[in-house]
Amino acid sequence: MPKKKEKDYDVIIVGAGIAGCVLGFHLANARIKVKVIEKKSEDNLFEDWCDSIEKKAFAFAGIQAPKGDEIREERDHLAILTPDLQTTIHLGYYDYWIVDRKLFHQRLLSDAEKAGCEFLFETEIVEPMGKGMWVIGVKTKEGIIHNARMIVDCSGKERILGMNIEILDLNLKPNKSDIINAYREIHKINSKELNWGEHEIKQNTLYYRHGYYGGYNWLNFLKEDEIDIGACVGKSITNKSPKGMVNDFVNSNAIIDNKKLRGGGDRIIIRRPITLVWYGFMLVGQAACQTISTNGCGIGSAMIASKIAAEVIVAAVKRKEVSIDSLWEYQVRFTKERGRDLAANDILRLGLQKLNEDDTSFLMRKKIVTRIDLENMIHAKFRKITLLRTIITAFKGIKRIKLMLFVRKLTTQANKIFKHYKNLPKEYNTRRYHEWLLRSMQLFKEIEDLEPDFVGNI
Ligand SMILES: Cc1cc2nc3c(=O)[nH]c(=O)nc-3n(C[C@H](O)[C@H](O)[C@H](O)COP(=O)(O)OP(=O)(O)OC[C@H]3O[C@@H](n4cnc5c(N)ncnc54)[C@H](O)[C@@H]3O)c2cc1C
Alpha helices of 72-155 — where are they, by DSSP H? Predict the structure, then answer.
């Protein structure tokens, strides 16, 4: 039985990660009474490594761009290597900051606190509390209930509230193919001359080896004498540990010091977003599956979503109307800003993950997957793939007809899903949204169910 009832808040956020802190900051700034409940202690909250964060997310989310020690590198160049390490594609731009994640997260938390957002650490939430269709509170492990007019799940990959609400796709358990295991370490390096396969690693460039074990590895000089080494692998593709891959790379390069300076890892959900709102309830950040599925970056999306969510919550709380109809605007605005691009790119990711490394390398070597495709995927953008492009592509890959048919199926489906997401109902209507959601699921299932023997050479 619940032990006691705590005083009411306008909004309770579960999780003090990036999404929870940005949302808490904006709500408190708008004089909304908000509390963030976090299971970790404040000392253990911050990841100790460096992340790539989309520059545009700062401006969009109204968060000051990183400066001083927070910026680890002004990296504007990204090179993508094929899985077989034979070909390099240099992207025209890389619109990300390389940020000290710990300092950045500490700043977000401190700014939220200064704005008046309350934090409760070392308190694990186990489930949402409901009344009829409404989410009205959360319960801690110790059985204490915290109530608020609105509850927001920012619990990252745990999705602790969503997982316990059996409505629509809120309690969706990601497929194995929607999960990657990620790991990164920073090491001292005592020479500028480093090779990856045949490739000389330049200091001004971030290198991604794309499509390797259904994920990607990367190398990035942070300073002249430090290097960030990382790996992500698809959970459905291999049991290989990304930590093992990073360690193998370190051990096979004598110029890299064995001692890890910083680093860590975790699993990341890399699928398109789920439903974002319910009665008195929202999900933001990784809890809502808003990560860019083609590179595992989720911080920019979490910041963008938090800003939109905050604006919608402020208006809804002020008019005392937090029903799904009132909160639907968040679903519509996020979908337009990036949800539809995430979804269309997720079709491409799902399909490309089914290919073997030889086929993936072939597509990139032959420029069937072009530099512009890669730039778009990395920056969470999708551009409709035209018939002319399809014909040129088919010609370039004439020697691998089955593979070309597969690519054609993927691009057609990505176009379809993008169009479908453009037709998301602008107002919440149970029947129309159910139909829309079912159709989305069907379109994805067609790609999820494609048999691997569809792929390959003739
Ligand atoms: C190795 C690695 C490298 C990465 N590199 C990048 C990168 O370069 N760029 C990028 O954009 N993204 C990167 N990511 C992804 C990025 O970390 C996530 O997208 C981002 O943290 C999502 O933010 P969030 O606020 O949604 O969730 P999180 O940051 O995961 O925050 C969720 C919070 O909720 C808390 N919580 C969970 N369950 C409960 C509960 N039951 N009760 C109370 N609190 C709870 C957690 O303790 C956590 O503090 C990387 C991830 C990994 C693992």
Answer: 101-115
- Give per-residue pLDDT as tens, 199-217: 889 988 999 999 898 899 9
Please give the Cα distance from 220 to 203 (Å, whole number).
7
Using a cut of 0.85, tell me whether the model's pTM lies above it: yes
Per-residue pLDDT tens over the stretch 239-261: 889 999 999 999 999 999 999 99
For residue 452 the two structure tokens come to: 């691997």
CA-closest residue to ligand 1 atom 23: 18
CA distances from 296 to 41, 60, 342, 449 (A): 26, 20, 11, 23
Mean pLDDT of the chain: 93
User: What are the residue ranges spanned by the domains of the chain?
Assistant: 9-70+100-175+271-340, 177-267, 342-454
- Return the ligand 1 atom nearest residue 266 CA: 53
So what's the architecture of 9-70+100-175+271-340 in CATH? 3-Layer(bba) Sandwich (3.50)
> Count of CB atoms within 10 A of residue 254's CB?
9
273 lines ligand 1 (CB under 6 A): no
Q: Which atom of ligand 1 is found nearest the CA of 50?
A: 8
